[in-house]
Write the structure tokens for this entry.
Amino acid sequence: MSGKPRLTYCNGRGRMEPVRWLLAAAGVEFEEKFLETREQLLKLIKDGDLLFEQVPLVEIDGMKMVQTRAILSYIAGKYNLYGKDLKERALIDMYVEGITDLMQMILMFPFSPPEAKEKNLASIAEKATKRYFPVFEKVLKQHGQDFLVGNRFSWADVQLLEAILAVEEKIPAVLSGFPQLQVFKTKMSNMPTIKKFLQPGSPRKPPPDEHYVASVMAIFK
Amino acid sequence: MSGKPKLHYVNARGRMEPIRWLLAAAGVEFEESFLETKDDLKKLQTDGSLLFQQVPMVEIDGMKMVQTRAVLNYVAGKYNLYGKDLKERALIDMYVEGIIDLNELILSNIFQPADKKEEHFATVVDKATKRYFPVYEKVLKDHGQDFLVGNKLSRADVQLLETILMAEECKPDMLAKFPLLQSFKARISNIPNIKKFLQPGSQRKPPIQEKDIPRLMQIF
């Protein structure tokens, strides 16, 4: 029993990846247990470990936490990545929720049928460059600070960096119209805890491939 | 300029309803501006009032807030409906996220094509009675208290009541196997602010009907 948080999920990004990012950004070491078969998931359910029969599951501070947003809010609150007051929280929440909507498109993309993939990719590109990235470009331009909220590193910065890198994996030139975001990406990537997470050998998971998709389909049916 | 929060949405439950519930439960009076045409939405978008071009949007405390969860978090925090510490928040968040998932399932029923409706309805009932309601029944049973978290009214109680009532609109005997949820429902419904919201003439919206769907879809 190490006292470190323990993450239970498939060996891939999915819905757990933002949790890995946030713990890493906060400098918190964690352990991982990977689900490989449906039987393992069914056992967790049978043992009563999963409040709503679902993963992600994060064992942290004596709790068996489920529901990605609940987990992220807890980590952000505990490690002072959630702003200094209710109004900063409100901004962080709005930014995070918007980014989460974009990330949801990326999450679902590998599972879309082959004939829909081109259209879905175009949709991701459009939403990223017309709806979401312009908002954060403007936020950074208007206050001229390094971080999105309160002149201080927060959950919103981590989430935005994750999203930028995820979209760039699919659309390499996506930041070409966004100079502030390019600077933001470089600055955030160079923060020590994040830099470490971006290096090979870290708990960061690779982009989903066919093998990952097949294993998810088998485990969750 | 009244200082009251102002809600921008269509005249329907949709994604705004949990916000109406929470403000009402907190005893906060609010105004509503209803989108009736596509142009109404376009105007808000071109005015720059919608951070991500979407509603719900709530004008509150000098902010134009968007994203349902962000709004709910803010209202809950401001009106002390979010627990007393991080751990109570964590419980409330877990319970609320489960409720939201069930809510989405119920809401999506009306948008199912005719040939899928029966199967989807069966899924709603299955998940409500096997995955979600048992959790809250057990929470109440284990601690024996009136409220889900910390022996005090929180957003989790308000949001659970809202979802229970929506589930019962689908299937009136949804709570047949859940005696503690039945008494929870009665108890929370009797809290003065909530009782008032449940009465005719309040800002609570009726269930969406099939005939309303085309009109609402053309706005979006």
Notes: The two ends of chain A are 32 Å apart (CA to CA). Chain A has two domains: 6-79+198-220, 86-190. The longest strand of chain A covers residues 6-10. The domain at 86-190 of chain A is CATH 1.20.1050.10 (Glutathione S-transferase Yfyf (Class Pi); Chain A, domain 2).
